[in-house]
Structures are given as C-alpha cells and as structure tokens.
Design brief:
The complex is a heterotrimer. Chain A has 13 helices and no strands. Chain A is mostly helical. Chain A has a domain of about 240 residues. By secondary structure, chain B is an all-alpha fold. Chain B has a single domain, classed as ABC transporter involved in vitamin B12 uptake, BtuC. Chain C is an alpha/beta fold. Chain C has 3 domains: about 230 residues, 3-Layer(aba) Sandwich (Rossmann fold); about 180 residues, Rossmann fold; about 60 residues, no CATH class. In chain C, helix 11 packs across helix 12 and helix 13 packs parallel to helix 14. The longest helix of chain C has 16 residues. The termini of chain C are far apart. The chains are: A mainly alpha, B mainly alpha, C alpha/beta.
C-alpha cells in the first residue's frame, strides 16, 4: 500500500514535468533553451553572478507582491472563499499608497510607514467590501470581487487621466513619479528593497503561524470547511469570514503598495500586474500551505521576469511564461486528482475483497 | 444634464439599435452555451479564457484557409475541448469546478496571447453581410433584424432554439432535471453524468462559436486579448438572466445598450473617455449585486410579478457532483 | 406479477446493508417489509428499483430472471419505487414532473399528458392540478403525484419506502385506500416501514428485517407482540427509571408561537425541570426541528417568552443560549456537528473550556488522548471526523459537550448506531441527568422514547398534539397521536 501511495505521489510530479517539456518542445524550442533563458533573464546565468543584481532586484520585487497576495489568499481559501477580488484589493492598496505618497510630506521613515499603512487600509477596505457583499448581501464572492476589480481598475484609469494626470502632458501611461522620499529604500542601482523582503517574509511566517498555532486560524479553517457546524460550536461565522477578507485585503494592499513605491515608482493603469490572479495559481499549486508559497511564487516571479528574454532572444512570445505557469498548475491539479481518484478506487476494491 | 439626455435619445436611432443587435451576437452564443452548461449543473468558469482561445482558433483557421466559414467549427472544437476538461476534472476526478475553471481561464488566455502573437494586426475576410430578401424591407424591424449577416441570424436562432429545446422538448426537460435534482433524474432512468458531459460540451461549442464571432465578425482581426473580460460578463449575465435563455438574451442586449450609451457620452465628458467604455462592466455586476441583495429580495417578495422578472434561483444542484453508491 | 429476491448482498464499505436476503412477493398482494431504521430495507428496495446495483443475488420476476443495472431497467420491467423523500423536482410544475423521464415524442405534448394525469387523478380520487409548482404540494400530494406517474409508466410492482413519514392522517388513510385498490387490480405492493401498526393495518403478509438479514415472515394478522418480538428479539417492556428528584425550572415556554409555517398555529407552553427527560415524537418534519431550534435561540418566536433557568431569553442570540449552557446536537453528525477534515484533537480545541489565542498542541493532544480513552472512541487523536464510524462520531460529539449543562437538545441520539454504542450513549445521557441536566430528545424509535423519557411531546403537522406521561402510556397511544388522531384523554396531562 505504501509503495502505491508513493507511486501516486510521483505520477503527478512526472505529469507536471512532461507537460512543461512537451509545451516547450511544442513551442518550437529544444526544451532546455527557454528554461535557461528564463533563469538568465531573471537571476542571471550562472545564477547570481556579478552584474546580475539589477535583474535579481527586479525578480525579487515581482516576488514580493505575488508572495504577499498568496499569503493573503491562503487565509481566504481556508475560510472557504474564492477571493477573485484580490486584483482590486492590490489596486486599491496602490491607489491609497499613491495618495499618501503624493500628498503627505513628513520625515522619510514616517512617510514610508504611513504609505504602507495606507496601502494596507486601502486593500483591507476593498476586501471588506467583498466580504460584506457576501455575508450581508448574499452576493457570491466571485462576482462581487470581480465587479470590484473592474471598479478599482476604472478608478485608477480615471485618476491617471484626470486628477492625477502628468503635469503638462495628457498621458494615459501613468502619473508623475512619486517624490524620492516616498519610494521604498533600495540597494544601490537596483529596485531590491530589503524592507519589502522582510515584510513579505514576516507576513508569510505570520500566516503560517496563524494556521499552525492559533485558535483564530483553527476557527477560520472550521468556518471554511463547515459553516453550520462551526456556528453550532458558537463560532461567529460571519465575523470570521469578514476577518479573512480583512487579512487578505490588507496583505494585497501592501502588495499594491510595493508595486507603486517599490517597482513602478508611480501609479500606472495596470498597477496590479495581474499578480493577484497569478497568486491564485500559486496558492492552488502550493495547496494552501504557507511555506510553499515562498519558492513557488519566486519561481513564478522568475518566469514572469525572465520570459521577456524569450521574446528578445528566441523570438518566442513572452506569453509562453504565462502558458508555462498555467500548464504547471493544471497538470499538477489533474495529476493529483487522478492519483486521489485511483487511490479511492483501490481503497474501495480493497474493502470489497475483505 | 441635457448631454446625458441627448446621449440617451440617440440610442433610439434605428441604426444604433441595429448595431447593438449586431454586436450582441458573440455574447448571445456564449451566454447560451454557459446557460446550457449551468442548467445541467456544471459551471464552466473558464469562459473568459476559452472564448479567447477559440476566438484565436477561428481566426487562424479562417485566415490560413481564406474561408471564414471554416473558422467557426474550429473555434467550436476548441470550446468543446476546454469544456470537456472542466467536465472530466469535476465529474470524474471530483476536482473543484471553480478551481479547474479558473486555471483553464488563465491558461487559455495566455495560450491565446502566445499562439496569436504572430497574427496581431492581420485581417481576415469577415462574415459577409446578407440581407434577407423581403423581410429586410419591413420598416424598422427590417433594418434591425434582417439587414445583418448569417452569424447574427444564427445567434438569434440559437437563443430561440435554446429556449424551445429547454422548455418545449422532452430532452430539454431532462437537461433541467439533471441540474436540478440529479438523484431524482437518475431514479427516472436518465444517465446524469453522461448527459452532463454532453451538455457541457455543447455549451463549450457555443462559447467557442461566440469567440469566433468576435474575431471573424464583430471585432474583425486579432489583437492582444481581444475578447478580454467578456467571458466574465457572460457569467454575470447568466446569473442576471436567471438561467432562462430569453432573459439571458435580454441581459446581453441590455449590456450592449449600456455600452452604446457610454460611448455616446464621451463627447460630453471627454476627460472620462478612457473610463466610460469600461463602465458597463461594473454596472452589470452592480445590477447583479442589487438583485441578490437580501433586503432587495425581501422587498421583491412583496411583488411576485416583479420578482419573477428580476430574479430567479439557480439550478439547485449547480456546481455539485453526482455519484451513485 | 410475482417477484422473488434471491440471496441479495449489498455492502457499503465495511457495512453489510443486505446480507443474503431472500423474499417472495405474491401477485396482487400487499407485502409489508418491517424493520428498524438501518435494518437495510431501503437499500434492498433501491437494489430492486435499479438505483443501486447489488453485489450478488438474483431477482426473478414472473419466473424470469431480470438484470437491473440502472433505474431504466427497473422501469422497463414494471418496477416503480416511491422514495421516502419523494424524488420530485420542486421548482418544476406538476405536469413537468409527470412527464420527465417518460418515453415519447421529442416534442413535449403537455396538454395530452395533462389529460392523462387528470384521468388518473380522478380514478384514484387525487386532486393535483397540473400547473402547480411541485414545491407547493404537500408531501402527501408529492407521493400521489409519484404514484400515478409510476402507474402511468406501467409499473406492476410498486415499492413504497416509509411513505407515511410526513403526511397527514387523512392523506395516510387515502394512501392506504389507494394501495388496497391497486392490489385488487393485481398490482404487487411492497410497503416498507418501521411502524408496526401501519404494516399490521395494511398488509397481508410481512417480512421482518434486522441488521441486513431477514429474521421472520408471517401471514397477517398476527398478534402485534409476535411482530415486536421478531423486530427486537423481545417484547418492549418499560424499565423502571431511576427517578431523579425534579428541581428548578430549566427551560420554560410561555405561549410560544412562530411567525409562519410549523408551530405558528397553536402556542406552546411548557416547563422542563432540572433532571427531566422529555421525549419528542412525531413523523419527520412535524415541527420537532423547529421546536428544538426555538429552545436554543436558532429561531425567534413571534409571540411568547422562552426562559432558561428562570431568566427571560426571548429573542436572544444562539450564542447567548450557549453561554447559558444550552446545547443543541442536530441529527446530521457530519453536517451539523463535526467538521470534515479536522482531527479529533482540533475538535476538542475548538470546543474546549480554556481558549487561549495560541494553541498548545502537545497539551491538546494529550487531552484528546485522555478523552478518547475516557469515551472509548475507536480512533486516534489524529483521526479526522469523517474517518470515524457513526457511533464514534456520536461519542466525539458527547465528549465535546461542556461539563456543565442546563439543557441538552438532541435529535435522534442513537440513529444508525449499533446496540452497544446506543446503550453507551444513554448511559452518558442518564449520567448528565443525574447531574441535573434537562434533556430533550427527538426520536423515531418508540422504544427509546418510552424507555428513557419522563414526558413525551407528540408533534403532528406543526403543533403539539399531545403531552404524555411516559409512565402511563403505551405504543398504541403514541402511535395514534403521531398519526394525528387525538387520544381519548387517557394518560394525557396538559400544562
């Protein structure tokens, strides 16, 4: 039985590898070339060589929002919620952060702290709205969230074109850059911000601890798995659902803040970079476990940054990166699903023969 | 204020109405497809992605073979393939329908960008206009309904046929039954899961044709993510339309009318020119929010007629699995 | 048609629901299938109607062996089944329910079908209008709809699974009349029930099942004691109860009424004292559920007051009742009690007395191991809720109860449990009673009701139809009340 279990665990992994290679071969490459290019484009080849610090910095600063959003999504998924509104929460975080960055002038450390706080609040409010629509309005969180994604995107576009438009030029590409004091302090010549890394790691550790060692996390899980039972145990289920959206929204808001003051240094229309949806894929692949978010989201960030090399060097469209991410998640999902299915069948057959 | 009013009046121009009907055809196909699938109990959340990928497939085949009509079956085939993955994952492997649908949405979207990159900007020959003799000369209706092209006629026919099938035929009633109470359908000898595969595939085919109706007709040619967000709108409209083909069709027309209105408003509010075209999307969702709101529902309960028009309950077994012990 | 079931086996996982069943049903007879809940009657009938397929065994119809791979085959063979919860499509109209699944032209001819429906209705004296949505029908009418649908499809063997659950006394009389008429027309009727009186009332022959096996057969009428003995192995005798001195009022209803639906017609007044055990009887869905939910604040009365321990709690939230040591354990152990995917340890942490923000897992596991031992739960501290058997799930639920309880509300405390677990559950409950906890429990098992209650409340179609002193009543009286017939004022006491 144990050897079977192992086999069924290995098959999905095999499926993933085969699917990824099959895809790269089908794309007209030799399979290894694109992987090398992605690595080279994101962290250098050989990795972390001298002169690659700018690339590495970019990759890390893409990893930051994906990992933060993923950490937040672990909370909503555990509470049984599909927080498709995560994109809007990232955007709202960026908008709130941009507001403080543009309007407030205090000493730099205080300003940075205020901006991050504002971003967290922005994302949190937008998340809370999805939760309220769900608990008080009975609106499915997928559609409530999606609607709020559209609204947040529209607000961004409006702000960029009208009230926050660039001085002198009518441009849809973004606002004026924020003042230097409002930007995340970074290593010389790169975007890499140690502060952002620390915040992200602390957030992931916090989420890990939340579900590993706290009653709050356990109750969230209980609510996500069975609401009537949880209610009967005396857990205020709606309050916990809202709590999940608040935590996720706050983390997504910080992700948006990082995009605004740590990567683009201004507000642009596509400020979320689609990292919210990407984070959903990360969490599905990580199977809702906090620790695995760190490597998987880094891998996804590498693909996101590195695939621009494909375009330049192999004349293969950079969307191949996205295809690769989707293929990985889909094949892992079906591989695991298939293994579980086989396992169930076998358990049934076993019960029948006894 | 007069600007708002003028833009509204312009909507009643016969040409504007004819355009609204014309541009509705892709969404009519896709929303009928999703309605059929969900009525049978399977949520195909991948619409936004599968429509995009089939839009590409339709475009590429039509472009390469220089025959617009070959594009549609190709698109339908892609739609069927994606739908079958959703069905297999949820029915056979008991995976979460929403999860599979979402991942397929992401994958298909990226796949369409990747595979379509070399076709950006290319123009195929679109679906030719075809006025229906005699009928086209009817005042108003002729111009709105009968001076279109074959795909628009087919879209309208699809709506009528879906309605007729679901409510007037034996098989259609069975389709509703498997999404409503599968164990009851099973006890009446109806092969629930086999039919769920079938109707999910039919739905996928229509979603695919809807995608191709964009790239081969309404929004001729290929660009980066040309059908972006329309799939999500389709999902919302199906709920808004209460899973009833005719009401879903009305929802599509309403959405396209809102869009036309927003475009009419641009001269009035030039600073909002970038925002206005996307306004109908949140508005549509907002409408959904309102008709789902418990307080509104309680209010509607006092007016049964209004309630029946504005809101209905989903198929009871939607999104669930059916397994016989 | 005559029907033979030969050596039918069917198991679900380790549970042998049918363990070598052989039954013969004569043509044109009313055949009773009697047994307790969980005896395997429903499974056998689902096998006979093609809903489940048997692991082994043969089915012979009119001397010819038939294979039933799916319900279609059964319908083809002329076997129709009316499920306990009639399998109708609630939002659909009566006529759509009628034609759904029937063979015929591609295009639906609702008019023609409606005519045939009306004819059949007239013939059997039913009154169902084709355009009504099925959700507006009473359970009895849904049954009538299903019966004529099955007849219309050409059923010659009609199976009814617990058909009297949830229908009114009038509807039951009507149903029995119809079934007798059908039998004289040559239809073979199999009547499945756990209610002895009904089988004795209606049937000509009876087969008794217990734990997946046939334990007896008889031509009716026979003295009821004989049937009881077959079912339980012994006659029901009422044990002497330990009398617990009643104390203060723990739960009081003063003219309580809900706004709509069940329990909205007649106000309920009731006073339950410490250490009292109240049995709640009635057909499923007669208002027991609504009553228990009123007792724990999950429903709010429209009129009247609810007090716990002398304190007015009307309109308070469920969690306030919980804080007042009122606990409700519904019937669905995995649906409304335990949480799938969480371990026993996690369950104890969730409901533990001491709740600190950080969980000390080592201590929690130790405590879980202790509890598992103390409550003799078959499982480990890391077992998930769904991996436990029904009896062990019930043990976990009881182990999760707080040490102090004012009122304990339970639905079907022993449903689906083996005898050992059932006895154990009552041992626990009676120990609670000794501590002064008031217990209110709903049950479909008359034996259980008579054995453990001090008083029995009988619910019928959304109201309390009788309140009996358990020391001074009998199966017949309860049965009559459950069926909606008011008792001729024998042991009835009113408060």
């Amino acid at each position: 039985m144990t050897s079977n279990r192992l086999l069924y665990a290995l098959i999905p992994a095999g499926v993933v590898v085969v699917a990824a290679f099959g895809l790269l071969l089908a794309a007209g490459t030799n399979g290894f070339e694109p992987i090398k290019l992605i690595v080279e484009g994101s962290i250098g080849w050989p990795p972390f060589e001298e002169g690659t610090s700018s690339k590495v910095g970019d990759t890390v600063m893409v990893w930051v929002p994906i990992a933060l959003a993923s950490a937040g999504l672990i909370v909503t998924f555990n509470a049984g919620m599909w927080n498709i509104g995560i994109e809007g929460q990232i955007i709202m975080g960026a908008i709130f952060a941009a507001f403080v960055a543009r309007e407030v002038s205090v000493s730099r450390p205080l300003l940075i702290a205020l901006i991050i706080l504002a971003g967290a609040v922005g994302g949190m409010l937008w998340g809370l709205l999805v939760g309220v629509l769900r608990t008080a309005g009975g609106v499915n969180e997928i559609f409530g969230g999606l609607g709020l994604d559209f609204v947040a995107a529209s607000i961004t576009t409006y702000l960029i074109i009208d009230p926050w438009s660039r001085t002198g030029v009518a441009s849809t590409s973004g606002t004026d850059p924020f003042p230097d004091e409002a930007l995340l302090p970074s290593l010389e010549g790169t975007r890499l911000s140690p502060l952002a890394i620390v915040i992200t790691l602390v957030a992931i550790a916090g989420i890990w601890l939340l579900f590993r060692g706290t009653l709050y996390g356990l109750k969230l899980k209980a609510v996500g798995r069975n609401r009537p039972s949880s209610f009967l145990m005396g857990i205020p289920t709606n309050r916990y659902l809202l709590g999940a959206f608040v935590i996720c929204g706050a983390l997504a808001g910080i992700a948006g803040t990082s995009q605004a003051i740590g990567f683009h240094f201004r507000l642009i229309p596509a400020i979320s970079g689609n990292y919210g949806f990407l984070a959903i894929l990360v969490v599905l692949l990580a199977r809702f476990r906090a620790f695995w978010v760190i490597p998987i989201s880094f891998f996804f960030a590498m693909i996101a940054v590195g695939s621009s090399q494909l375009q330049l060097r192999l004349d293969v469209n950079s969307a191949l990166g996205g295809v690769l991410q989707g293929t990985l998640v889909l094949s892992a999902m079906f591989g695991l699903g298939w293994a579980a299915h086989r396992f169930r069948k076998q358990a049934e057959a076993g019960a029948e023969s006894t | 204020m007069s600007g708002l009013w003028n833009a509204f009046v312009e909507l009643f121009d016969t040409r504007t109405i004819a355009t609204i009907v014309a541009v509705s055809s892709p969404l009519l196909f896709a929303s009928m497809g999703e309605t059929i699938s969900e009525k049978a109990g399977v949520i195909n959340l991948s619409v936004d992605g599968s429509m995009m990928l089939s839009a590409l497939a339709g475009f590429v085949v039509a472009f390469e073979f220089e025959n617009v009509w070959l594009g549609f079956p190709a698109a339908a085939a892609v739609g069927v393939a994606v739908a079958l993955i959703v069905a297999y994952g949820s029915i056979r492997l008991s995976l979460n329908q929403v999860a599979v649908g979402f991942v397929l949405f992401a994958l298909c979207t990226e796949l369409s960008r990747f595979l379509g990159s070399s076709y950006v900007g290319r123009q195929p020959e679109g679906v030719p206009a075809w006025d229906i003799p005699w009928l086209e000369s009817i005042p108003f209706f002729g111009q709105v309904l009968f001076q279109q092209n074959l795909m628009v006629y087919l879209a309208i026919l699809t709506v009528v046929a879906t309605y007729f099938f679901m409510y007037r035929t034996r098989k259609g009633l069975e389709l509703q039954g498997i999404g409503e109470r599968p164990e009851a359908a099973h006890s009446r000898g109806i092969p629930v899961n086999r039919l769920r595969y079938f109707y999910t595939a039919v739905g996928g085919a229509l979603i695919g044709i809807g995608g191709a109706a964009f790239t081969l007709d309404v929004k001729l040619g290929w660009s980066d993510r040309p059908t972006r967000n329309f799939g999500w709108i389709v999902l919302a409209i199906v709920i808004f339309g209460g899973w009833h083909p005719l009401r879903v069709a009305v929802g599509v027309l309403l959405f396209r009318t809102l869009e036309a209105y927003a475009l009419n408003l641009i001269p009035e509010f030039p600073s909002l020119s970038q925002v206005l075209p996307s306004i109908p999307f949140p508005l549509m969702i907002l409408a959904l929010v309102i008709v789902n709101w418990k307080a509104v529902l309680a209010w509607l309960d006092r007016y049964p007629f209004l309630r029946a028009i504005l809101r209905s309950d989903p198929p009871t077994a939607i999104g669930t699995r059916f397994e016989i012990n | 048609m005559s029907l033979e079931l030969l050596d039918i086996h069917k198991h679900f996982g380790p549970v042998r629901a049918n363990d070598g069943i052989t039954i013969t049903v004569q043509e044109g007879s009313l055949h009773g299938l009697l047994g307790e809940n969980g005896a395997g009657k429903s499974t056998l009938m689902k096998v006979l109607s093609g809903f489940h397929s048997a692991d082994s065994g043969r089915i012979v119809l009119d001397g010819r062996e038939i294979k039933l791979a799916n319900p279609d085959d059964a319908i083809e063979a002329g076997i129709g089944m009316l499920h306990q919860d009639p399998l109708v499509f609630l939002p659909f109209s009566v006529i759509d329910n009628f034609v759904l699944g029937s063979p015929g032209s591609a295009r639906l001819d609702r008019k023609k079908a409606a005519r045939e429906l009306s004819e059949l209705c007239e013939r059997y004296g039913f009154n169902i209008s084709p355009d009504t949505p099925a959700r507006l029908l009473t359970v009895g009418e849904r049954q009538q709809l299903e019966i004529i649908r099955l007849l219309w499809l050409g059923a010659r063997v009609l199976i009814l699974d617990e058909p009297t659950t949830g229908i009114s006394a009038d509807q039951r009389a009507k149903l029995f009349e119809t079934l007798k008429a059908l039998a004289t027309e040559g239809m073979s009727v199999i009547f499945v029930s756990h209610k002895l009186e009904e089988v004795a009332d209606l049937c000509e022959r009876v087969t008794v099942m217990t734990r997946g096996k046939v334990v007896g057969e008889a031509e009716l009428p026979v003295p009821p004691e004989q049937l009881v003995e077959m079912m339980f192995g012994q006659s029901i005798e009422i044990h002497d109860r330990d009398s617990v001195p009643l104390g203060t009022s723990h739960l009081a209803f003063d003219s309580v009424r809900t706004a709509t639906g069940l329990l909205s017609e007649e106000p309920i007044s009731l006073d339950v004292q410490s250490g009292e055990v109240i049995g709640i009887a009635g057909m499923e869905g007669s208002g027991q559920d609504a009553f228990l939910r009123l007792c724990c604040g999950m429903r709010t009365p429209k009129e009247g007051t609810v007090s716990i321990g002398g304190k007015d709690m009307t309109g308070k939230h469920y969690r306030d009742y919980l804080a007042a040591d009122v606990k409700y354990l519904p019937a669905g152990r995995l649906e409304e009690g335990l949480i799938e995917g969480l371990t026993i340890t996690e369950h104890f942490v969730l409901t533990g007395e001491k709740q600190s923000f950080f969980v000390d897992w080592n201590a929690a596991r130790e405590r879980a191991v202790e509890q598992i031992e103390h409550y003799t739960i078959k499982g480990t501290e890391a077992s998930t809720a769904e991996s436990l058997s029904g009896g062990n799930q019930q043990r976990v639920l009881l182990a999760m109860l707080p040490p102090e309880l004012t009122v304990l509300l339970m639905e079907h405390p022993t449903r689906g449990l083996d005898i050992e677990s059932a006895d154990w559950v009552w041992e626990q409950l009676l120990a609670r009673r000794q501590q002064g906890t008031s217990i209110l429990f709903a049950s479909a098992d008359l034996d259980e009701l008579l054995r453990y209650s001090d008083r029995i409340l009988v619910f019928f179609s959304g109201r309390v139809i009788g309140e009996l002193d358990a020391n001074n009543t009998n199966v017949e009286e309860i049965g009559m009340l459950i069926g909606g017939r008011r008792a001729p004022s024998s042991g009835s006491v009113s408060s």
